[in-house]
Amino acid sequence: MKLLTKAYSRHVHHRPFILSSIAFILFFCLLASINEVRFDRLLHLGQCAISKLQYPSISISTTTTTNSSSSSSNATNNLAAADDEIRILIGILTLPDQYPRRHFLRMVYGTQPVPKGAKIDVKFVFCNLTKDDQTVLVALEIMRYDDIIILDCKENMNNGKTFTYFSSLPDMFSDESQKMLKSDDGNGTSESSPSPPSPPYHYVMKGDDDSYFRLGNLVSSLRPLPRDDLYYGYVIPCPSMDPFVEYMSGMGYLVSWDIVEWIKESEIPRNHLDGPEDKVFGAWLKEGRRGRNRHNAKWSMYNFPVPPSGCTHEFWPDTIAVHLLKNQPKWIETLKYFNATKDLKPSKLYHIP
Fold this sequence. Notes:
InterPro entries: Glyco_trans_31. The protein has about 350 residues and is an alpha/beta fold. It is about 50% helix and about 15% strand. It has helices at about 1-55, 55-85, 100-110, 130-145, 160-180, 215-220, 255-265, 265-270, 275-290, 330-335; strands spanning about 85-95, 120-125, 150, 180-185, 190, 205-210, 210-215, 230-235, 235, 245-250, 250-255, 295, 300-305, 320-325. The strands form 4 sheets. It has a 7-stranded mixed β-sheet, with helices on both faces. It has a 3-stranded mixed β-sheet with strand order 7-14-13, with no helix packed on it. Strands 4-5 form a two-stranded antiparallel sheet. Strand 2, helix 4 (about 130-145) and strand 3 form a beta-alpha-beta unit. The longest helix has about 55 residues, at about 1-55. The chain starts with a helix and ends in a 16-residue tail after the last helix.
């Protein structure tokens, strides 16, 4: 009996030791398994690093694929941006000797902010030079500003100058596009350039040099309009609001590029050149059944308020064009109303009240 009691007592005393030993063994096994997992991960990472060192083409291929995808995405975005861009050429018909007027208009249009997503080129248009001083002074202007178009014609107002202007543009800008496609890298070799936009302009305007165009409002009015077969301007006669009855005033009318190309190719315009240029232009479109999309910009386009007439009204903020600015006081009054100098930055170099 005593022997059984001692055996039982010894068993009871050894139980904690056995339990703690079992627990220790389990802990050790768990720790070993964790370390094994960590080791496997480290081994896997090491294998990945070694494989990249041994086979760099895989990394390059992956990078190339990623970059290709990114480039494709960027190209798509660029195409979308290009589709959303609006390109406008404003040709101001003037005379070679009108140097002060051109310099003044450069200030007027060069200080206007161009809306985002718009490209507007303002160029001065006249016929062949006829004086020695013109060949020097106009050449200097071109070298400095690159904003002059010289047409192959004898200077006139209502005997074909407008036709020559519009009909010359497709060939002019086709040649310019070819120049853009190849450029000299400075080493005597040529390299390819990005393709020029097509068409070069969505819209082409003919404007007078006594008209003031507000470029931001012009762009805003054009954005929702079609980019084909468009005829845009101020409807004549002044009381009329129907753009299909007569024609658009010569103060500034605009057409889409496809009509510019039609003027170049069609026999209708070249067979009818004489007469008031704006009226003749409307007659071309009527006979050729062109300009099916028409937009009357009245009353955002109008003549200077004084003297009052059926073609005038007071200045207002939504103005696109003001016409008949025949002298400097009228220009100054117009520019003051539209706060043309609002972006003048303060400086210690000048003080303007």
